[in-house]
From TrEMBL:
Organism: Aliicoccus persicus
Transmembrane portions of the chain: none
One GO term (biological process): proteolysis
Protein name (Swiss-Prot/TrEMBL): Prolyl oligopeptidase family protein
GO MF terms, alphabetically ordered: serine-type peptidase activity
Residue span, Peptidase S9 prolyl oligopeptidase catalytic domain: 66-240
Lineage, opening ranks: Bacteria, Bacillati, Bacillota, Bacilli, Bacillales
Pfam family, one: Peptidase_S9
Taxonomy, superkingdom: Bacteria
Length: 251
């Protein structure tokens, strides 16, 4: 891989390795955490799109390992402006290139591998807007934001941050429209939507908005509402989620 740097991450496993890597996204050097197997036969590139901002919701090794197999590489970009990456977080603005650049690198190096996006929380905005630029094999929307307008509506506590980063949806509609993937052409992949029924951080309405869009487009999808689950899934639901993810990738 043509990474600018690779630094061993503290992780011991008989068959897998973890590295912090850096690469160019536009003119910025951004960082990511990657887990890869010792084997050469790579069938899947799983790109985990984190939620939160800055240290909140940062990419963690444990989350990447949930999507790891011997035939797969799992990588989670930190996004520009976070955890030592240059530039500024733009909440699904120009920072979408942080994801697009990774896809292009992996596609060049592993042309036969499936590219799968895993979007958690705010990472849903990153994923949906990435689909404007790149075709991927599958997308898991896990308790994920699908609409920036819905995010502003439901997260009163985040409105100040969103006004600083994006603007006000009524005063700066062009900035919100630019980040509302439904208003643009999207390369729709195999879609799996999972949402906790009592998620208080990303309302289940995000899943319903996405489903309405997919039905309008006559695009197939699988949807599972995890009854009684909040934003962070319990261990039994994590196991169920992983099984559904791999089934969606391989069917």
């Amino acid at each position: 891989m043509n990474f600018l740097s690779e630094k061993q991450y503290p992780f011991e496993h008989r068959k897998w390795n973890a590295h912090e890597v850096s690469y160019y996204s536009d003119e910025y050097i951004v960082r990511a955490l990657m887990v890869s197997p010792n084997a050469d036969d790579i069938k899947n590139i799983n790109i985990y799109l984190r939620g939160g901002k800055g240290q909140v919701g940062r990419v963690r090794l444990g989350r990447l390992l949930q999507f790891m197999r011997d035939d797969s590489i799992v990588v989670g970009p930190y996004y520009r402006g976070s955890n030592g990456s240059e530039g500024m977080d733009e909440l699904a603005g120009a920072d979408i290139e942080d994801v697009v650049a990774l896809i292009k690198m992996f596609r060049h190096h592993y042309p036969d591998a499936r590219i799968n996006l895993i979007a958690f929380s705010r990472g849903g905005l990153q994923a949906m807007n990435t689909l404007r630029h790149e075709k991927v094999h599958s997308l898991l929307m896990l308790n994920a934001v699908s609409s920036i307008y819905q995010m502003y509506e439901e997260r009163v506590d985040l409105r100040g941050m969103m006004r600083r980063m994006v603007g006000h949806p009524k005063k700066d509609p062009e900035s919100y429209d630019a980040r509302e993937a439904f208003l643009h052409d999207i390369h729709l992949p195999k879609m799996l939507i999972i949402h906790g029924s009592i998620d208080r951080l990303v309302d289940i309405e995000n899943a319903r908005i996405l489903i309405d869009y997919l039905q309008y487009k006559n695009h197939p999808y699988d949807y599972f509402e995890f009854e009684g689950e909040r934003h962070a899934l319990t261990p039994p639901s994590v196991k169920r989620m992983k099984n559904l993810f791999w089934r969606n990738v391989e069917e």
